[in-house]
């Protein structure tokens, strides 16, 4: 959705590795933010359930956390790869033609 902006940066003179760095930073930042928010909400929901139902038996184990983190990284890697491919293929002057 930001191809026009990346095309403009490419036309200005931004190198491919700089654009790749921007995309990877955005992907990692949003992945870690989403993982942290999801983990926090999950913890709050388990605490609320235990408060409401004392016999509630749910746990967050390190294995579950690691598996979820790995899946978040895989999703971020795939989506950033698709974005990087599109940005590196774009011709900057096609953006300005309209």
Automatic annotation (TrEMBL):
Residues 2-92 form the ABC3 transporter permease C-terminal domain. The keyword Transport applies. It is a multi-pass membrane protein. The keyword Transmembrane applies. It is found in: Cell membrane. Pfam families: FtsX. The chain crosses the membrane at residues 23-48, 60-84. One of its GO terms (cellular component) is plasma membrane. Keywords: Cell membrane, Membrane, Transmembrane, Transmembrane helix, Transport. This is FtsX-like permease family protein. It comes from Duganella margarita.
């Amino acid at each position: 959705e930001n191809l026009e902006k990346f095309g403009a940066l490419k036309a200005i003179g931004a190198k491919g590795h700089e654009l790749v760095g921007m995309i990877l930073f955005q992907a990692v930042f949003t992945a870690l933010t989403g993982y942290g928010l999801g983990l926090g909400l999950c913890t709050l929901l388990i605490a609320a359930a235990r408060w409401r139902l004392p016999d509630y038996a749910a746990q967050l184990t390190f294995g579950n956390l690691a598996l979820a983190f790995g899946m978040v990284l895989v999703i971020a890697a795939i989506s950033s790869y698709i974005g990087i491919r599109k940005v590196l293929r774009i011709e900057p002057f096609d953006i300005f033609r309209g």
